[in-house]
Amino acid sequence: MAKKKTKIDVEESSGNVFADLGLPNPEQELLKAGLTLEIYRILKARKLTQTQAGKILGIPQPHVSDLMRGRARAFSAERLMEFLAALGHDVEIRVTPTRKAHGQVSVVVAA
Fold first, then answer.
1. Domains parsed from the chain with CATH numbers
2. Shortest CA distance to 51 belongs to which of 65, 61, 62, 41?
3. Cα 100 vs. chain centroid, distance in angstroms?
4. Please, what are the averages of pLDDT over each run of 10 residues along the chain (111 residues)?
5. Please, what is the Cα angle at 16 between 72 and 88, to 5 degrees?
6. Residue 79, Cα to own-chain centre: how many angstroms?
């Protein structure tokens, strides 16, 4: 017996999952997700407990837990950048012209 193949409709991404889902402020959400991911990577690389991380970041352990789970809604992008600075990283904001009608926001991590 041959199995019947089911056709799956696929929609190409815009490059921003938050925009694709129709969420408000998708550029800001994408920025916050990138910053949160970098905070997560740093904390994991340094093998810090959530309590230790909270002391460095100046927030209680439950808020560190939220960050580690990708729940950064309670924090502004500015606050997330302050966390990166507290972890010993420089944060640089660069504005460049675009050839498109609308620019984009991105997080680039230096190697």
1. 24-86 (1.10.260.40)
2. 61
3. 24
4. 79 85 88 94 96 97 94 91 96 86 78 66
5. 45
6. 13
